[in-house]
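hi!! sorry for the late reply, been swamped w classes. u asked for the two structures so here they r. pasted raw, havent cleaned anything up. first the sequence of the first protein and right below it the tokens
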Amino acid sequence: MNEGHKTHRVVVVGSGFGGLFAVRELRRAPVEVTMISRTAYHLFQPLLYQVATGILSEGSVAPATREVLRGQRNARVLTGDVTRIDLVDRTVTSVMPGKETITPYDSLIVAAGAGQSYFGHDEFAEHAPGVKTIDDALALRGCLFGSFELAEVETDPAVIERWQTFVVVGGGPTGVEIAGQIAELTRRTLPGEFRNVDPARSRVILFEAGPKVLAGFGGRLSDKAARELRRVGVEVRVNTKIVGVDGTGVDVVAADGTRSRVDAMSKVWAAGVAASPLGAQLAGQCGTQVDHAGRIKVEPDCSLPGHPEVFVVGDMMSLKNLPGVAQVAMQSGRHAAAEILRRLQGEQSRRPFHYRDKGSMATVARFRAVAGVGRLRFAGFPAWLMWLVVHLIYLVGFRNRLTSLLDWAVAFGTGGRSERTVTRSAIRRLQAEAPPRLGSDHGSAQPSPSGTPGRLGSSAPPTRRPPQ
């Protein structure tokens, strides 16, 4: 099996939840583990929106992978973009600028994760980036805080309104959490700091193509989340599709076919995910299929059809309609590693992967969240407290847990946010996207649901490369 190599070689592609938990599961195994990832850090993606909104630093949610695995002597880390997996020769090819590396394997775990999906409209990405990487979060942070800096020096009320309008596309957990935090930022953190503009008059609009936000949480929690979002000032627009995105706004179509436009300089896309292209590459080699999200169909034990030595886990695998959440990645990564260990010990049985659903949760605003654990449903402060404890447990490293807890105490207790640096390059990017002079809005002023003074806009009511 090793063709002369004495120690079993395990290659893990990706440093996310699936990859990291697989490597850790092999810490006492008689194997050589090589983790290959395009990033040099392990990203705790569920908290990325807090980096974008100034609550947490990027270091708190993205510790260096080498530091995390420093004490695991059978593991090494390679940084590089995996461009090819050869199932016949059993090699993984990764590329760094000016350098190509070919790594052989005896067992392979592919946990390259997923990126943003624009449902066939990739051109939207230029003006409505997602929040899937540290780069995305830092760019969004610069956009949010930079918008107010540019609004402060503006004299045209129409231009100011565009700078102070924030559009979030997608009513899933990520979209709801981002919209809620932007609203709290504008109403609790920034008021009183500017003289020419009032951040509390900002407009935060959440668009969802379906009939409800957080639809996967059930009707009761979904309704509670929508009410809480509106309470903090978010305009929730359901049954509304985005049909156009450009530098100065979005075009939307309501359920009745009415088309309108919302002018906004800041747009965030949180509406869908697409698995790493490595899934399609593997499917082409072994003759299997990928689903609509690019996930590859795997055997019950998470192995690739016809290649029991290759495991595909987390967001890349299609198995029993499992959701693309962190717990699925963690558990499937551990399962794949355990399967490798059992085979090394001489066991021939291929145990199917059984997912243990530990529940779902999402924060809506300060001290407000929704959570579902089994048949139990929580909302409000108890759900928020549960969210706090769970995320503290799964953050990697005591230092990150401590600093995050302190940052949360400041942010949720006082409204202050320590991560608010806006670089000159971020301001330049925003200025480059803005036209020299925006014309005035068409239509009459309309009162917003939050009770703030009228907004200029449409005459119709305003509606609403993957990580490794």
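now the second protein. again sequence first, tokens right under
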Amino acid sequence: MLKYALIFFVISIIAGAFGFTGVARGAAGIARILFFLFLIIFIVLLILALTAGAHLAV
């Protein structure tokens, strides 16, 4: 998911450089959504892994 966010970010940068502001804005929006979705999933899985590790240590 982070890979796709980076791809859309690069598309946004290139489109903005060539003057396609609508495409750049859309790609940046998609990249932002994917990045925050990745971040939320990462934090949830990290918390779950830490709590599972705490149960195994006991």
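hope this helps!! also noticed smth abt the second:
Helices lie at 2-17, 21-57.
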